[in-house]
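Reply to dn_fold:

You asked what the input looked like. This is it:
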Amino acid sequence: MTYRTSWNTTSSTLILGACGGAGATTTALGLANTAAVHGTAVVAVDATPAGGDIAERGADAVLSGSGLEHVVTVAASGAVPDDVFDAYCSRTTVDARILNRLGTQTATDSEMSLLAEALHARGASSVYDLGHRLRASYLSPLLAAPTPIILVVPCRADAFNRLRAALQSIGDTLGEPGLSRTVVTVSNQDNTGWQVDVDLLRDYLGGQVWGVETIPYDEHLGMGVVISHDHLAADTRAAYERLLDITSALADGRREPVPAPVSE
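and this is what came back:
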């Protein structure tokens, strides 16, 4: 049993890395593509301060030369027409849209407000790739709502040790309510197996965050090629499905555990 039949319209999720190279961008793409597979209009947004590589990493259908700066410029004057919006977006083969930041200017809070309003007006859900910084002032419009947070950490002992600073940042910025809607997600980037006992992390974080989830090693993700949802292993797709269930439940205000899928 799961809570979701499809992702709620206009839902938002924030993806935060506990450190550089944690897998936040990959997870943002995985969540957006999974929502798109279920028929949700969803946009993966580059919410890093000066531009990341989310479009280059995930646009396996169309890579646009435009960016979210263009959308914001149009939105400042009124509604963004559908054809204009689509022209500015990159796209995946499962029909998720990607808005990359060109990096011609540093992100601002007014820009993020305009973008969030434009996406809401379109009835689009959004997945924001924040990189590994939460306290930047331009993120304040995204943090004002009780939005689910996916905190991604690579499965390494040194990264687990750095997780404390990331959790403190969430706590200092959003308080206990922010931590209660935070899902720590361990990304395994080692093809030899799980190098750290994730259950120990679950025991340590018990009661501090919503829960701890995992994303297994995936050969496709480790190749460095443009990510294609259809090329992911079944276990990886199942992990993203579960994250989608969890974020849907959190967006609805549910705090009880989401049941794990039953094996066939």
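The radius of gyration is 17 Å.
Hope that clears it up.
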